[in-house]
Amino acid sequence: MRKGRILSGMRPTAGRLHLGNYHGALENWVRLQDEYECFFMIADWHALSTMYQDTARLRENVRELAIDYLSAGLDPEKCVIFVQSHVKEHAELHLLFSMLVPLGWLERVPTYKEQLRELEEREIATYGFLGYPVLQAADITIYKADLVPVGKDQESHIELTREIVRRFNALYGPVFPEPQALFTEARALPGIDGRKMSKSYENFIAMAAGEDEIRQRVQAMVTDPARIRKSDPGHPEVCTVYAFHRVYSPEGLLEIEEACRGGRVGCVECKRSLAARLAAALAPIRARRAEWEASPRLVDEVLAAGAERARAVARATMEEVRAAIGI
């Protein structure tokens, strides 16, 4: 009996992945690769939905994301790591799905109008942007994925995929299973300024940051604004440094909280302690990244082998799809 199958992926954007990406997704992927048959995609076609006007660094971004995947601990012996555009069957299934998806289904996707507003400085009122959930549905169903690890905010996208599957199966016969959302536990971290961690805000700590970079970023973290002197009682619940200690100092968290509230430890000392813990925790990721960066040919081999494994599954699915439709 085969393991359940999982499909997930990220879009390659400029810059290295940060701790928000790691704890929000990659950390769980590393665990899931031991429990499921996993396909992890670098979604370069999806990246074009918002950055089609600037593709100069797209291939470089794809390589950087592949290295980040491998640095985080994804093992090509345990999972399939591939680039979306290297498996052309995704595009074929997307085309066929687009023939049967009502326009209203796409216009009511919650993130559609929201992102149009958020990215109003970009010209993204395009078919590709409106139709990206259809491509996403093709990504998932071409591998007949049982589960898709997502956050609650993405549940509507998986439901749309299920609607597309139900419509296809009703029209042409049962080809696809209905994928389910896998709500995995994610450890949320704020940016160093207290806002959501984001590359666009420049408030992130890179997943493979070096010790000097970590110290600089931690030193810039926003702390309790009401605390002026070391002896002032602190309020750790509003402190960015404490939010990081929750993740990286769980065994000493109570002591850290009590010392802060009691004015027995200053912010500088607290930051120094956090920086040391972060540097130690990220050391294995840094080491793996250094190894992969030194072996670009091996990265290419991982992606080539992953694409071949993905294509084998995708080809078989498309044979069923064409036979069901009669083309």
Word description of this protein:
The protein is mainly alpha-helical. Helix content is 54%, strand content 8%. It is built from 14 helices and five strands. The chain has helices at 19-32, 44-51, 58-72, 89-98, 103-107, 110-118, 127-130, 132-141, 155-172, 211-219, 240-248, 253-261, 267-293, 296-325, and strands at residues 5-10, 37-42, 79-83, 147-150, 180-183. The strands form two sheets. The protein has a three-stranded parallel beta sheet with strand order 1-2-3. A two-stranded parallel ribbon has the order 4-5. Helix 8 (132-141) packs across helix 9. The longest helix is centred in the C-terminal third of the chain and has 30 residues, at 296-325. The protein is elongated, with a radius of gyration of 22 Å. It starts with a strand and ends with a helix.
Topology at a glance:
Layout: E1 5-10, H1 19-32, E2 37-42, H2 44-51, H3 58-72, E3 79-83, H4 89-98, H5 103-107, H6 110-118, H7 127-130, H8 132-141, E4 147-150, H9 155-172, E5 180-183, H10 211-219, H11 240-248, H12 253-261, H13 267-293, H14 296-325
Parallel strand pairs: 1-2, 2-3, 4-5
Helix pairs in contact: 3-13, 4-8, 4-14, 8-9, 10-13, 11-13
